[in-house]
User: What shape does this take?
Amino acid sequence: MAEKIMVDLENKLIIAKPGITALDAEIELYSDLKEDWRSSTNGELAFEFPFDTTGGDPIGAGLNVGAYFFLRNELGWRIRPQEADHELKIAGNLYPKDAAYPMFVPTVGGYTVSIQIEKSSLTQKLIYGSGINQQDKDDLTEQIYDRGVSSFDQIAGNAVAAQQLRDNMDKIVDVVNCMPRIKKGEALEKFAFVMVSSTDHITPKVGLSVLVEVSIEGTGYTQAANSVVEIGGGAYRIDLIADEMDGSVILLRFSAPGADIRFVSLLPS
Assistant: This one.
């Protein structure tokens, strides 16, 4: 259920709830609203969904293209801030579907409101796994198997179905184990990223001298120890040393003249 917004279907308004001064385009506008939309009384026919999205596709090396969200303003959808004097900050890649129409409408009352959209230059998300060792996998699947047998036996005497449950769990754990692991305090070699033009924010930018800065646990930035190597086609890589990975939250900042600044968060286990 959307916690920070409410929807006026008749007037096609997405309205920030009282006290809300910040929204995340991906989580609090798109995802939360999508959940409400899917669970609405008439399912997907209840109302036309107010957003289109693109991105999220895998580009290799455990990286996904980041998402962009487009408000269907050509269909009449608008966003309205809360009824108060404030600055509304919206984080994420939020754009109008049609630039000829507005995305926002004023408050009903005579309030002074400024709106700031903090578009993220992040176009990559790293998918990683902490990994499950064989003993843990055996223990976990054994527990599921035992409980499955017990449950199915009580209901229908069907141990075959419980074995199928165990087999499926094995497949899930195998997928997790195949995901790249990022370990705290351990060097991360050949970390790949893509730089795009600051002109159109899409075209891969080649021939850059990229500066990489590292922030550990929310501290200030420090220049990375190693230099960036160009792979080609706008892709680059860097070897991160163990000291640069010694934290539970690592924020990388990639910058170069003529290119969008990139931010990538890592969560070592």
In short: Residues 122-131, 148-156 have pLDDT under 50 and may be disordered. The chain has three domains: 5-120, 134-178, 188-266. The radius of gyration is 23 Å. Residues 134-178 form one domain.
